[in-house]
Amino acid sequence: MTEDAPKPDKYAGWSQEQINAHFNEKARKKKAARDKMLADKTNEKGLLIVHTGKGKGKSTAAFGLAARAIGNDMRVGVVQFVKGKWETGERKVLEAFPDQIVIKTMGEGFTWETQDRERDVAAANRAWDAAKEMIEACRGGEPAYDMLIFDELNIVLRYDHLDLEEVIATLQDRPEDLHIVVTGRNAKEALIEVADLVTEMTQIKHPFREQGVKAQKGVEY
Q1: 78: Cβ–Cβ under 8 A, 6 or more apart, which residues?
Q2: Domains, the chain, ordered by start
Q3: Which of 138, 205, 208, 215 has the fewest CB atoms within 10 Å of its CB?
Q4: Using one digit for the tens of pLDDT, what is the confidence trace for 10-33?
Q5: Which pTM was predicted?
């Protein structure tokens, strides 16, 4: 049979009732297998989550987690390491829940905007100090936060504005039940290695690069 030849119909001669019964049985077996798999997954712990890659949506996905956490009566802390001065739609939405979220905008802008490495390093260290304070606020007694988002931390690590070993050691030493989300492209391999969940956003097409379309409200910010 050549590649272009039509493939035989697997269900030729079957009645619709037989086809439905066949797929219902497949679904039953799949559910049984999944139920068995889920029965073994009983552990809970705070996760170290990394969103990286060249595609857009890393911070957006992190703020989506923040919205989900707020919907579950959890408390969220956010430190924005780079683009904190940007007015974004998701930040406005989250700030409508001041009792559940604290957002610290520590960024000075991207390196090509500031063109001042000393200033960039100082800003990164101030943001990291704020991040460490949030982590420490989750130790002992009633934790201040259930989830922390360190937006664009990967960017300052990429440019060596912070000590990578110290950052990783601090993240690993987080309280047991605390979730931490780190965003930004070019995540360091050492961070990926210790993370529990890593998602890489892959860029397939982008209107800015290919069509000259500027960043638009409601999509990019």
Answers
A1: 66, 94, 101, 102, 103, 104, 148, 149, 151
A2: 48-211 (3.40.50.300)
A3: 205
A4: 888 899 999 999 999 999 999 988
A5: 0.83
